[in-house]
Polyphosphate kinase (Microbacterium immunditiarum), 721 residues
Amino acid sequence: MIEQDVLDAGLGDADDDDFDLDEAFDSQLPDNRYLDRELSWLAFNQRVLELAEDPFVPLLERANFLAIFASNLDEFFMVRVAGLKRRIVTGLAIPTNVGRSPQEVLADISAEAHRLQLRHADVWLNQVKPALVDEGISIVGWDELDDEDRDRLSDYFHAQVFPVLMPLAVDPAHPFPYISGLSLNLAIRIRNARTGRQEFARLKVPPMLPRFVQVSDGDSGVRYVRLEELISNHLGDLFPGMEILDHHAFRLTRNEDVVIEEDETENLIQALEAELLRRRFGPPIRLEVGDDMDELTLDLLLKELDITAQEVYRIPGPLDLRGLFDLARIDRPDLHYTPHVPTTPVAFQPGDNNQRADIFAAIRKGDVLVHHPYESFATSVQAFLEQSARDPHVLAIKQTLYRTSGDSPIVQALIDAAEAGKQVLALVEVKARFDEAANIVWARKLEKAGVHVVYGLVGLKTHCKLALVIREEEGVLRHYSHVGTGNYNPKTSRIYEDFGLFTVDPEVGRDLTRLFNELSGYAIEKKFKRLLVAPLHLRKGLLRLIEKERRHALAGKPSGIRIKVNSMVDEQIIDALYRASQAGVPVEVWVRGICSLKPGVAGMSESITVRSILGRYLEHSRIFAFHNQGDPQVYIGSADMMHRNLDRRVEALVRVVAPAHIAALTELFDRAMSDKTSSWWLGPDGEWTRHHLDESGQPLIDLQDRTMMSVQRRRRARAVR
């Protein structure tokens, strides 16, 4: 239930209507009003799998979606399932909004995950792999090779593979070896020819070698053999004098959920490094084996790994289809998406003299909204920071870094700025999951260059995407701000869909200055002007805006709510949307992943529509739009509607005020929610139904293709002018 003071916190100088909270929350909502978040996540990964099944998707992209599904599921087990099991073992309460026991939740997860992994294997074996053969790309078995092919592969094995293999025996003198998480292994049973005794050995498939070894490339096509098959057909070279009785592939997933008690440690970096070391040895949570594995070998693995039968996944075909990422990179343009070339945002395009654009001059003309990857990250965000590092009038740069890439030009720009004598503050979130080690490296590199590096607030992750540049202009300090929905990562910016707002608005500049002071020091801000900031204000602010629309609907005035997020889980936000729907507010939710909200339920959510869009780009931006009687209140930012985002992270939304930008975001939302656009529709029972073909069986509009066309059309129109 929402606390009584939720709507008491204002939105900066926003309207301070005195809402009657008792009236706002007097409607009753049923107990079973939420969908299970874990099963909803698995439903999201099923949508990824459906893209791999789609014959209208280019073939190598289908292989890529199979790899994405596998990678997603690995992380789901390493984090979500691991976290649930850790809570059960330690006796901690498991947050659940669906009224089931932890054991029931895990049983449902296991059943659905088993079903999806079998479907995943079937898509590879019976759809994508045969289609690749038709296109001249074959994954062949050893028995399909002739003597010449085998001789050539044997030469490769002895030169490139054999030297890095490390067979480990298991006997009284050699205990069962440690099995690293996500490694692909061979369980081998052998017989000692001298003693007749059967032995067991484990062999790790080297992860640094290509998973698919090319056999030949000719007019008839290209052929590959899987690395583990090449190794398994040379086991006699690894165990000379021994009889190879049997061998089977297996793969273990471990708990890799990092837990740090920040308030009990004096040095966060040291504690995190110790926890990362511990993570390598986390308890097993899933064992994948080939469906041909014999019971003797499986029983040995179950005993030695201390894992239950429910946690065993028998998979037909090859294990670890993440290897298809490599296969998907084959240079066959006819089997890939038609390339999209990002354009330079219109505001940042060079003038008639074709010189480098002046980013500061462009921002001074008015707010600039950029949309990645349709518009280039390199010629907008990266150019902004690189120009800031060079500009002698820039005095200071402050920036958050949640995830970045190796040899990042963003990090280099901050280093260049510090070495040029500017004040530079970098807030590096070292607790960004699976990027912890990389972020520690970058933090230390920045510190050595003279950058002031801080690690945020105790107990909170700093997830907001903020950059602030202080520039002296004619004796006056001016604040140039960037607030984004995605990370400052040049690599992911090419495949993640995100928005970023550049502004010289002094209100935003003062908001960011206050927020950075809070993050780097001890200042505590109560209000902001154009920002909504978690954990203190963001949920309260959104609840206030939702309630405002509900009041308008009750009064017979126009109303409307539109929300685009990666995940919709927070119960308070969902309940507020239910109450708004009960009052007649049209609510449209565009969600990529998890959604615990049930749309279309009579008497509760009849006016709520939920859609999901997946494609070549990962939909990552967050948009919050409220009708506000024709004066739209629109925000973009970093926050999803999840407990962790609203309660345990520093998040920031910025209000978009330029009419042209509001119109662009509205147009995008209109297109996404249109029945003519390919998307998945969520039903009240939690089932997602794909709507991607018209009445004639042809694909509906691809939102991402259409968006790229729109961006390019705007650029051509400017060129004509």
The radius of gyration is 28 Å. DSSP finds 20 helices and 27 strands in the chain. The CA atoms of residues 451 and 641 lie 33 Å apart.
